[in-house]
């Protein structure tokens, strides 16, 4: 799920960090939803800790009844049951989306890659009977995967074009910087310096060369703290 808009306060980065930690490791939501969501942290408990535990138990009971369904179907059910179980916080769907993503990637033939939000909002729309919601969920997954695959194809084509145009450049930095821009969607000069193990001057010189030839473009429009992306088209 994307953040609703660009935010300057650190809360947005904190939410992203929370999501990444739960998507990349640790126990899943199957047994202890409170622990998975970090609702046991005293800073997060406040006055509704016990009511949340009760609501989480209700959600887990419903999900247990769907244990024999495919992980993708269970993820859809879990996402849409989230608000019905009273688990949402002021309409925030991030917890529901992260939990659903972990269910999708669970053992038993789940989908490792399910970037549902890349397919638009249709797959996440909470309206209509369960069969319609599941159909939109599956269509959204298919659209999202096709979108991601097209993006990867574009990046592969860009890398080949960049390699051809950069053959005249000497040294290791051009090749290493091209690899960084292939692997990462957004790259700053300090980031390029760390990932290529090159000097800041070398990175900036190669970035300027690539930008002048239309291989990359700057996206912030700022004089400082600039960020570049591969110019795929």
Highlighted features:
2 domains; two-stranded antiparallel ribbon; elongated; 233 residues; mainly alpha; Arc Repressor Mutant, subunit A; 2 strands
Question: Main beta sheet: strand number and arrangement?
Answer: 2 strands, antiparallel
Given as residue ranges, the uncertain stretches (5+ residues, pLDDT < 50) are: none
Beta-strand level of the residues, as a percent range? under 5%
What number of structural domains do the residues give?
2
Q: Quote the distance from N terminus to C terminus.
A: 26 Å
Order of helices and strands: HHHHHHHHHHEE
| Strands, total number | 2
Rounded to an integer in angstroms, the radius of gyration calculated over CA atoms is 22 Å
The outline comes out as: elongated
Please give the order of strands in the largest beta sheet.
1-2
Indicate the mean pLDDT.
84
Q: Tell me the quaternary state.
A: single chain
Number of helices: 10
Strand-pairing-aware structural class = mainly alpha
Percent range for helical residues?
A: 55-70%
Question: What are the SSEs and their pairings?
Answer:
Elements: H1 10-24, H2 33-37, H3 42-45, H4 49-65, H5 71-84, H6 94-104, H7 130-165, H8 173-183, H9 189-196, H10 200-212, E1 216-218, E2 228-230
